[in-house]
Amino acid sequence: MSSKTPNHVMIDLETMGTIPGSCIVSIGAVLFDPRYGIITKETFYAELDYADQQDDGLIIDESTLAWWEDQSPRAREALLGLDDLKDSLKDLSKWLPKDAKVWGNGATFDISILEHCYRLYKLPIPWKFWNVRDCRTVKEMFESTRGGLGTAMGSGRDKNNIAHNALHDAIHQAQYINKMWSVLVGKK
Fold first, then answer.
1. Residue 42 to residue 62: CA distance in whole angstroms
2. 83 has which bridge partners?
3. What is 151-173 written as a DSSP string?
4. In sequence order, which residues have a C-beta less than 8 Å from that of residue 59 and are 6 or more positions away?
5. Is 87 left (phi over 0), alpha (psi -120 to 50) or beta?
């Protein structure tokens, strides 16, 4: 195992829409390293005051608002967030390791929405564009080489892990990327 601190970061957002320019409800991130199957205890989490973001031109999609009504009460707790988005973006920038390789679940969702907000607030994007990674691409590679997910992924989400909680989703995504990575590179 490498003695270097992991620089892979799984980021997950909960939002009020599916496009850049949507209000952000929460940001969750965890430091991990798929090469060694490591998920650290170093995390970042912010529950944001998404209503105030509309003053800055960010939008709330009505269908996403309706979707939130169907989520669990524990997931909806994030809707009560009070953190300021601009301050949280600055905090995330400080928290990220040097030369962070940032992962999102989709090539055009989490990272693209964050980058839009960094630009909106005239803040430097804290990662290099070539260090952006996508979970869905790895999942597609895994499924196409293995004929599906099969039993390699285990029983799924931990029972204490809340679906649509940004931090819990980030940890879950890091876990399944680690598992798929180890199979794809021949460690399992």
1. 34
2. 48
3. GGGTT-S-TTPPTT-HHHHHHHH
4. 16, 17, 21, 22, 23
5. alpha
Tally of domains within the chain: 1
Helical H segments across 26-109, by residue range = 50-53, 62-69, 73-76, 85-95
Q: In the structure encoding, which two tokens stand for residue 53, read together?
A: 């973001």
The pLDDT tens digits of the residues spanning 40-98 come to: 999 999 999 999 999 999 999 999 999 999 999 999 999 999 999 999 999 999 999 99
CATH number of the domain enclosing 74: 3.30.420.10
Domain boundaries, position 124: 8-184
pLDDT digits (tens, 9 = 90+) for 91-127: 999 999 999 999 999 999 999 999 999 999 999 999 9
- Token pair, residue 37, equals 């199957």
Q: Supply 8's token pair.
A: 């892979």
pTM of the model: 0.93
Sign of CA dihedral 111, 51, 55, 60: positive
Cα separation, 8 vs 99, in Å, equals 9
Taking a C-beta distance cutoff of 8 angstroms, is the pair 36, 8 a contact? Answer: no
Q: Which helix (H) or strand (E) holds 179?
A: helix 166-184
CA distance 52 to 85: 9
